[in-house]
Write a structure and sequence with these properties.
There is one protein chain. By secondary structure, this protein is an alpha+beta fold. The protein is 32% helix and 22% strand. The chain has 4 helices and 5 strands. It has a 5-stranded mixed sheet with strand order 1-2-5-3-4. A hairpin with a 2-residue loop joins strand 3 and strand 4. Helix 2 packs parallel to helix 3. It is elongated and about 75 Å long. The termini are far apart.
Length: 133
């Protein structure tokens, strides 16, 4: 009988992007929304570097298979949401990784979001241009 592999799940968030991440000990396969990572993030060069940061920091690059679904936001925010989810899942896998991930800021949800536009203004804070004459 085959031994069941342990899966670790975590949710990562950034701006309006939400990533659901499952990591399993494996060969380093990376699937995002049922597509290979390079195919999904083909237009964002920095995304791979952003997503691999927790693995590089903890020395676990290539030791996990990652499956994630991500929605909302842009590609950059999605990559950071995946990074947040991977970091949280790594802590579930091994609690000893927590201090290094915490110090790097990967476990903290980046709460900065776009400020809403206010009535009477051209943007969130930008007012109308003053005309003297």
């Amino acid at each position: 009988m085959a031994e069941a592999k342990k899966r670790f799940y975590a949710t990562g968030k950034r701006k309006t992007a939400i990533a659901r991440v499952w990591i399993t000990p494996g060969s380093g396969q990376f699937i995002v929304n049922k597509k290979p990572f390079d195919e999904y993030f083909s237009d964002n060069i920095v995304a791979r570097h952003v997503v691999e940061m927790p693995f590089n920091l903890t020395g676990t690059l290539g030791k996990f298979d990652i499956y994630c679904t991500v929605e909302g936001g842009g590609k950059s925010a999605q990559a950071e949401a995946i990074r947040h989810g991977i970091s949280k899942a790594l802590v579930l896998f091994n609690e000893e990784l927590r201090p290094s991930l915490k110090k790097a800021g990967f476990l903290t949800r980046d709460a900065r979001v776009k400020e809403r536009k206010k009535y009477g203004l051209r943007g969130a804070r930008r007012g109308q241009q003053y005309s003297k004459r």
